[in-house]
Each structure stands twice: as C-alpha cells, then as structure tokens.
Amino acid sequence: MILLLSMRKLAWVFLLLIQKLTLAISCLLCGNLTIQENDRCCCTITSDKRRSDIFENMICKNVQENSYLHSTILFRKLYFVDSNIKHLTKKMFTNVDLVEELYLNNTGIEYIDSDIFFRFLFLSKLHLEHNELTSIDGGYFTDLYELRELDLHNNQIEKISSFHTLKSLINLNLADNKITNFSSVTFGDLKQLMTLNISNNALKSVDAISHFNQLRILDISYNKIVDLPGELFMNLTNLKVLNISNNDIIRLHITMFRNLQTLSILSMHSLKLKTLDLKNLTSLSHLEELDLHSNNMKFSDGEFFNFFTNLKILSIDGNIFPCSVVANLLNNLKRRNVTIKYTQNYRNKNIEGLECTEEVTKVTEILSSTINHSKTNPENGRKALETTEDFENNSFIEKTLSNITNILLKLESSNFNILNKILEKIEQIGHNITISLSAMDISLKLHKINASIEEMQN
Asked: Contact at 8 Å (CB) between 56 and 46?
C-alpha cells in the first residue's frame, strides 16, 4: 500500500514538471497524452489551481488535416495554434466533456461537420474567427446550451441558418463577413444577448435585432443600410454603445433614439445626412461620447451641443460650419472640458481642425467685426501695428477666408485703441480692396501680423 501511494506521488510530481514545459514536436514525447496524430503535432499543458485532477490549458500546435486527439486527462481550455485544419471533423475530439473554452481561430477552416460540438457539454466560449467559412449551419451549435461567447468574425460567411438554440449566448461577433440578410428566425429567442457586432457586411436591413432587450453594445456600421425604422431601437432600453456609422442613411426618424436614455456612446460618422435636428437626440441626455465626423452636415448654431450636459468627447470635423459658429462652439466646449477628437489632418483653412466658411467682401469689414470684442491691454497688438506700416507696397494674395478668421480670433485679445489704429492704417491703403468669395485670404504682410501676434502671446 505504501509503495502504491509513493508511486502515485511520483506520478503527480512528474505531471507537475511537464506542465511547465513545451513538449517536443513529436507527439510520442507528449508525456501523459495519448495522441494518435502525425509527427508534427505537439501539445503543452498547464495546471488548474482550482483542482488537482484537471489541467487548465491544452495548447496544440501544428495540427494538420485529418488529425484526431485522444487525451487521457481532463482540461478546461483547448487551443489550436499554427495549425492548418480545412475540414473540422467529429473524430478530432474525445474526452472533452469538461472543456469550457475552445479556440480554433486562424486555422484555415473551410468546412465543419454537423453536430461536431456535441461532446462539449460545458462549452462557454467558441472562437472560429479568421477562417474561411462561407456558411453557418444551425446544426453546428445544437447542443451548446452553455455557450455564452461565439466569435465568427473575419470569415467569408454569406449565409446563416440559425442560432435559436443558443439561449445562453451573451456575446456574438459576426463582423467582417459577406452576410447580405438575416431574419428574426436567424437569432431565435436570444434573450440574454448583450453584445452584437455585425459590422462590415453587406446588410441592407437589420430589423431582426429589435427584440434584443438586454443588448448593451450594438455595432451595425459599414453596411449598406439606407433606412432605419423609427421603432427599431424602441425595445433596446439597456443599450450603452451604438454604432451606425458608414451606411447610406439619409435621414433619422424623430423617434429613433426615444427610449435610449442609458446610451453613453453614439457613433454616426460617414452617413448621408445633410442636417441633424436636435429633436432626434433629445432623449440622449446621458451621452458621453458623440461621433458625427465626415457627414458634410450644415451646423448654423454654436449652441447645438450644449444640450448634451454629460458630453466628454466629440468628433465633428468633416462638416460645414460658419466661422463665427466655430469660434463660439470651441469656446463653449473648452469651458465644459469637452475633448474634441479629430479624424483629419489640420490644414491651413481649418480653425483648430474644423473647416469653416464665411461671406465677407472687405478686409476692413472683417476687422471691424472683431473690434467690439477686443480686450484692453496696453502691450497687446503693438508689434501688429508696426507691421502694417509697409502695407502700401504689397498686393493682397488670394487664398482662403479661414486664414483671416484664425488671425482675427487672436486679434480679439488685442488692445481696443491699437486695433482702431490698425483699422485706420488699413483704410488709408484703400477702402475698396475686396476679396473674392472663392479664394479669400490676406496679404503676405497680414501674415506678418499673425506672426507678430503669436510672438507677442508667447
């Protein structure tokens, strides 16, 4: 009896030693594993701190076509890495009753046998991303009642049968495929679903998602959606993150976001919208991040975003703003500590990254519009005044109006009296100097004013 116990202890010590090592390429050297496989297979195991009789991980490398693994031990996680398995067959798996996580990503899988996962009684995570699957049969997942996470992104999937048996599913990722449509039958009764990513497909309609009332994160971006029904999100009252960007949506129904009071992140960039009515967003008072960039929308009110009292991050470049609105908008956002995220490179015609337009005919009119808002400081603007002395010998160079506005925003902090003198000096040069609406900018000497003011402020 004592000898038998000693032998068992020695055997356990041996197992503890090999679990720390990467075993040799030959399957014959995989120690405690009996694996009938070609000579390129290799498996490594690590321990489970919770139980001494169950290993945490089995990591199998270089598994090839027509492989099958017969393990004499129990483990919770099974990984296949650096493998090439075009056809996933039933015979590959035995003794996998306690496996909770299965990772078959990036293994070149093109075909899967029906009912292949019936032995995985406690499987909670299944990763099949970055493969070559073209269709998903409902029979694949028939017995996976405990499955909570399914990742199928970045395949070639065009057709989906059904996920209706996956009643415990929480996270589903179908992004980066070629799916053109699905119906309410496709998802069945997924009452527990909290995260759904179907971005970057070829979907024209997503009406089937309207009943996922536990959903927290929804991404339907980069599809071909033209219209979203006003009641589509009506039941998604727990939604926190919504991305509808890069679709062909031309208008938003006024009731679309009505029940999304808990929404904190909304991304609507690169749509076909021309205008955005605040009435569409009145229920989003808890919004913390809003992305509206690259919509080419017209904003005429700098107070538009004041409604979002909890806003922390805003992306709005790639839209149309009058320069006066931009100045007001930037001041308001800065005062509220809202961070502006830019998706485009700064250009000369931008004011702090936001392109703006204005209709002005005379330089003197532009300067006059800023005089009444100037601050008094005896030192400010002195160098700017000096640089106007030789305006007479230089012609105006047409560029863009936004450059002028940039300079004027800086001049707002200059001394009232000195600005008056600058104005008088320019008026002496000529009252009839005009700027074309197509390409408006100031002369090289006005650039000197800009440089002088920057030097003064530094």
From this structure: yes
Tens-digit pLDDT profile for residues 31-83: 433 334 434 455 666 655 554 455 677 777 767 665 666 666 677 888 887 78
Beta bridge partners of residue 258, listed in sequence order? none
Backbone angles phi, psi at 345, to 5 degrees: -70, 145
Q: Is 6 exposed, middle or buried (0-12, 13-18, 19+ CB in 10 A)?
A: exposed
Q: What HEC string does 240-279 produce?
A: CEEECCCCCCCCCCCCCCCCCCCCCEEECCCCCCCCCCHH
Please report, as a single letter, which amino acid is at residue 131: N
Residue that is written with structure tokens 């002395």 in the block: 389
Is residue 182's pLDDT more than 90?
Answer: no
Tokens encoding 452: 């002088």
For the chain, give every domain's residue range.
Answer: 358-457
Burial of 16 (0-12, 13-18, 19+ CB in 10 A): exposed
Distances (CA, A) of 102 to 77, 117, 151, 171, 206: 6, 10, 11, 15, 29
65 C-beta neighbours (distance < 10 Å), count? 13
pLDDT (0 to 100) of residue 413: 45
DSSP state of 170: -
Q: Strand 42-47 to strand 54-61: parallel, antiparallel, or no bridges (unpaired)?
A: antiparallel
Half-sphere exposure of residue 192, counting CA atoms within 13 Å on the CB side?
Answer: 14
